[in-house]
Amino acid sequence: MQAEGGFQINELKLISIDGKEIDFQSTRSGMNQFNIQTKNLESGVYQLKIMSDKKLFYKSIIIN
Question: What SS3 state is found at 21?
């Protein structure tokens, strides 16, 4: 995942459908590219919580 649009991402959280935190990444200044390992995840829908310096975003991710 790569951030675009002039904002700094501070934290990423990958959350399972039942609300469990699967992965957490805190960023370093100037770092706007992230890798999330999905090969060991069960198939299903996950939420990616993206906290930036300006806004809070949620994206749904489907793992097959």
Answer: strand
Contact in structure between 11 and 24 (CB atoms under 8 Å): yes
Q: How many beta carbons lie within 10 A of that of residue 15, not counting itself?
A: 17
Interval 12-63: pLDDT, tens: 999 999 999 998 888 766 666 778 888 899 999 999 998 887 889 999 999 9
Please choose, from the candidates 54, 56, 58, 50, the residue with its C-alpha nearest in 3D space to the C-alpha of residue 33.
50
Instruction: Give strand pairing partners of 8.
Output: none
Give me the phi and psi of 33, to 5 degrees please.
-130, 135
> By the 8 A CB rule, do 38 and 64 touch?
no
DSSP β-bridge partners for residue 11 = 26, 51
Amino acid sitting at position 57? F
